[in-house]
Amino acid sequence: MTSAKHYGSTFSAGSSLSGDPLAATIGLLRPLAVNETSLHAAGPWAVGFGTTQHVELGVVARGECWITLEGHDPVLLHEGDFYLLCNPPPYVLASALTEEPLDAHTVWGGPTRGAAHIGPADQEDTYLCGGYFSFDDANARLLVDLLPSLVHVRADDPRGPLLTHLSALLVAEVESTELGSALILDHLAQTLFIHMLRAHADDLHQPAGWMAALSGDGIGTALRALHADIAHRWTLQELAEVGHMSRSAFAATFKARVGSAPLEYLIQWRMSVARDALRRQSMTITELAAAIGYESESAFSTAFRRVVGISPAAFRKEQTTAVTS
Q1: What SS3 state is found at 122?
Q2: Cα–Cα dist 273/240, whole Å
Q3: Helices (H), 93-216
Q4: Please, which residues bridge with residue 186 across strands?
Q5: Distance between the two ends of the chain, CA-based, in angstroms?
Q6: Residues 276, 143 contacting (CB under 8 angstroms)
Q7: b/e burial code for range 165-198 (CB count within 10 A of at least 16 → b)
Q8: Integer Cα distance of 9 and 187 in angstroms
Q9: Cα–Cα distance between 5 and 174 in angstroms, integer?
Q10: So what's the architecture of 31-206 in CATH?
Q11: Do the strands 46-49 and 150-153 form a parallel or antiparallel pair, or are they unpaired?
Q12: Using the 8-state DSSP alphabet, how is residue 135 labeled?
């Protein structure tokens, strides 16, 4: 069984204020660990998984299987297909939809997943490999919820060969004991993750959502402008003008695609940046308030308390205590 490898994010403080919403989001997620996981199966089989924190990615290296996720239609994964699960609800991987699933803990012998086998080893029909990684808890729930719960990238996707190469390198580095492996894992995991999200955003058959909104002309333009200058005192009218839409059409379309009203999204994003900065103690509370668009420390503290539930000073102290304890 392969053990976890821990590594830190290479994203700088400035990336949190990036005009690229996807890069900024991944930057604040700050990957913490990667585990290589694999499943070798023969004959009829099915495995059920509970709610997972926070992201899993995998490839069908041999054979095919079904994936069923609560809230989604079943998807048949063919050989060479990739799948990405972001904070997913309970799901099942199976050779057939009629099979009764075994609990994943039973298959892997516990909560930690390395290599597992179902059926005779010399009659392997399906081989799945991949990994899962967790994120910094300060922002994980809010930010991962912006991402699609299931991404399916087919083998014939233009990014298929690149993803195959990246996943092979990822597995090799997880098993490596050479110097610099943790840093390589950091970059590979983030690169594979982003390429899969890009493939999802490029798929015109996917339902609308935050990723799709980034690619849309009006909403995407406004989102990029908002992320490029979160300290600006944006109004709904200004954002609508950036998106070349009427105020009412912009507000309705933004909420339908992103899941929240434009100015509420801005507040939530500011608080995500604030949580990250407070954890890293990269600036004073007064400096932070100005950096994310508040006229005073008092105004920032009021907004932070409303969203997070405690004051910025209390949050910083709480995070510092957690790190040192």
Answers
A1: helix
A2: 23
A3: 104-108, 140-144, 160-174, 181-202, 210-215
A4: none
A5: 29
A6: no
A7: ebbebbbebbeeeeeebeebbbebbbebbebbbe
A8: 9
A9: 7
A10: Sandwich (2.60)
A11: unpaired
A12: B
Return d(Cα 259, Cα 268) in angstroms, integer: 12
The pLDDT tens digits for 85-123 are 888 889 999 999 999 999 998 998 866 677 888 988 777
Report the alpha-carbon angle 206-263-18, nearest 5: 70
Strands 33-41 and 5-6: antiparallel
- Whether the CB-CB separation of 222 and 254 falls below 8 Å is answered with yes
Query: The tokens 């990723």 sit on which residue?
Result: 211
CA atoms of 246 and 250, how far apart (whole Å)? 6
Are 21 and 223 spatial neighbours (Cβ–Cβ below 8 Å)?
yes
pTM tops 0.85, yes or no: no
CA distance 32 to 307: 25
Tokens representing 172?
A: 């090799």
Contact 83, 58 (CB under 8 A): yes
Predicted confidence (pLDDT) per residue in 169-199, tens digit:
876 776 677 888 777 876 777 788 888 888 7
- Which CATH class name applies to 211-324? mainly alpha
Residue whose entry in the numeric block shows the structure tokens 């719960």: 149
Structure tokens at 43: 């004959």
Domain residues of the chain, as ranges?
31-206, 211-324
